[in-house]
Amino acid sequence: MPTDTALSASLEDYLETISQLEASKRVARAKEIASTLGVTRPSVTGALRALAAKGLVNYDPYSLVTLTADGQRAARRVIGRHKALARFLGDVLGLDEDVAQANACRLEHSLDGEVLARLKKFVEFIDACPLGGDKFKQGFKQFCGSCDACRCMDCAKAAVSKARNVSGRHP
Predict the structure, then answer these.
(1) d(CA 144, CA 74)
(2) Residue 128 has pLDDT above 90, yes or no
(3) pTM of the shown model
(4) Other CB atoms closer than 10 Å to residue 19's CB: what's the count?
(5) Domain 9-75 maps to which CATH number in 1.10.10.10, 1.10.1760.20, 3.40.50.790, 1.10.10.60?
(6) What is the pLDDT of residues 134-170, one digit of tens each?
(7) Does residue 56 contact residue 13 with C-beta atoms inside 8 Å?
């Protein structure tokens, strides 16, 4: 594989789209890629040439487009970032699915690995912590809505106190 594999947000979107088309239709065509991304065919051609030069896609004009093994790995990374961000935005922050997906798409290209890893760990923590889970998520949703912040703080203090008495481990 060529050594220069740095990808722009746009090229990452192409990889993600090609992967999704391959998963649903077994192959991707330039016309379908253009339609899915809402771009022109010449834009697709330019992107496919750039991805082919990086060794990420198999592309010949007027033929099917497939991901190489390196392209599949790169697409999985992009898709994994997208899923993790969409889960955080939707499940933890309680954003509507469409809003979560749209913002995950924008964020997936700009967050570095350390921030993304920390977000994933935070979601895991919320799911695993006795003070977290669905109650935490529901409480946050209420806090963002019409909930009185002072009452929420009282609830949080009571929950921490209860956890101390039960486990003796939480501060």
Answers:
(1) 36
(2) no
(3) 0.73
(4) 19
(5) 1.10.10.10
(6) 877 777 777 777 555 555 666 667 666 766 665 555 4
(7) no
